[in-house]
ATP-dependent DNA helicase RecG (Alterisphingorhabdus coralli), 683 residues
Amino acid sequence: MRPPILNPLFAAVDSIKGIGPKLMKPLDRLNIATLRDLIFHLPNDYRMRHHLTELDEAYVGQYVVLDLLVTSVRESAGRGPTRILAQDDLGNVMALVFFGRNGGWARRQLPANEKRRVSGRLDRYGDMLQIVHPDHISPVNEVVNAVEPIYPLADGLTAKKLHFSITEAMADVPELPEWIEPGLHAREQWPAWRDALHLVHQDRHDVARSRLAYDEIFAGQLAFALLRKSNRRQQTRPRPGDKRLTDALELPYSLTGAQQRSISEIAGDMASETPMLRLLQGDVGSGKTVVAVMAMLQAIESSGQAVLLAPTEILARQHFDGISEMLRGLPVEVEVLTGRDKGKAREAKLMGIADGSIQLIIGTHAVFQDAVIYHDLALAVIDEQHRFGVNQRLLLVKKGKAPPHMLTMTATPIPRTLTLSQFGEMDVSRLDEKPPGRQPIETLVLSENRLDELADGLARHMDGGGQAYWVCPLVNDSEQVDAVAVETRFAMLQARFGDKVGLVHGQMPAERKDAEMERFVAGETQILCATTVIEVGVNVPNATLMIIESAERYGLAQLHQLRGRVGRGSDKSRCLLLRGDNLSETGRERLALMRSSQDGFHLAEEDLRLRGAGELLGTRQSGDVGYRLATPEQVHTLIGTAHDDARLLTETDPELVSERGEAARIALYLFERDYGVRLLRGG
Ligand code: ADP
Ligand code: MG
């Protein structure tokens, strides 16, 4: 249960004075639903207002506070602005300018021959300084804050309103007990939690901000440490295997060193009484499937069942086909189970899973529905981990008589620091070596102005029977707007290539998306016009051409993922990166890196260097590891300390019952990492 001290923070945001139904929409767009969300909405900049006594000291662009004597009101003819002249103590004259209906109001606020304190941004019109629409006008004795926090806004929510609401909300914020380790707290000279919040809402204060970031990172690491610990406490059946199946498996290639290392790490984990909790990280094409197959065979040798969970229907079926082929001749019963199975056929499969005659199950979410009862689930493999959250994984744990061993796989190569921040509860194996003989994907950068030539080239590619992906530009963060862009491009391609063009984007219903993908897999369509939904996609060896529009707008990691869709067959593959005219320095560097390297881990490190980790951090399901307060740089610098501190705390106080442990529980709830607490006795 949530500690009562936090209750005021989780009150709905409309309980704050002045926030009514009209503001709910813009607040929602800013992800603000509770009072906590509101106070965690931190300024992204601060504006300094300079208190000046003489206009001579001022310059254009400066935010100033001035005490001025109003001298005259000048109304220009017609619809022009109202200009009110005022002067400083030395008689320097400037203008205060108001457009439209503000003129009348301004004349009342600024009567002639009176002094007023005015603030705003200085600019120049002709040879006179002026402020257009001052943001503050008051009697001269009223205090104007020298610093104004600038918040990210949404349509329908003014800066003034937001600032006011945050100030109101801060009044209800309780002081919380300290969860940071005292030595660290002192060394960093961090303020207390509530003070830190106050400080960052007032002024630029890096130390306070770093404390707030640390809290969030620490809560994440603590939740992971608890997950890990609770996993360690569990007992399961060791599944050492007897090599009967793994030795009999005939592969048309020899395993790479990285594959052998990963296989033996996994084999060791599975032979233990502690359930395995391991992440297998390997670039597209690094050969994760065979590693998973070896683990699954080991589970079956130890008389257990294995399940392989794929993120989509198509991927599940492709895995089923590939793995059935690989295991041909071995005495292993393999089945596929997805949402598409219905009626009698489904019943038969469920029966086989329940009586143990089906030993290896490949499927989608359908494999952990209530109706699916396993005879003896020994190992669960999750492909493309980031589509599954921690909560879903915990569901899967309950499917075994004893907790199953868990292997999660991801094709997103991420830098080590980020592995910690996203998968901190797991042990990690890395496939950092590609199978030999891979043809590099020829990567070219072209100007977007050459679309016509490109279409000609595409026509030749298709005449030869080839297939291609065409990825459309990310217009902005809105899926809807992207859909429009992709449909426009689709129409253009269709005009030229007719029904040889398919279309997928995130706004389509799942079934239509699947159907379109399948048409492409089957070769019915030759061009697949798409948004990045194809990122975690399918294997179409015949697709040897990847075209990415406005490539400079994507992060390196994402470009690399997209490029990984081609280069899967024996034919030479190409990736064409189309760039717009206004290429930034970073954009240029990014595209150059894409040309020069095909190493996902290297590109991921470079991506982190070039753009920060925002995109990489977004790869795991939201609600799990999204950071609200911590910036990528802060994650980078603080995660090591947070990780060690969290581990230490769970060693010394595994149930979080000491004074600091109790405080740490509060932090877990504050950042909604409370699945960690729920694993504790009395949690
Ligand atoms: P991932 O899932 O990591 O993207 P896959 O497991 O699908 O990669 O493997 C990609 C391709 O590489 C498959 O065609 C597979 O047969 C092949 N492959 C895997 N391991 C090796 C190896 N050691 N040597 C040669 N080819 C391999
Ligand atoms: Mg794979």
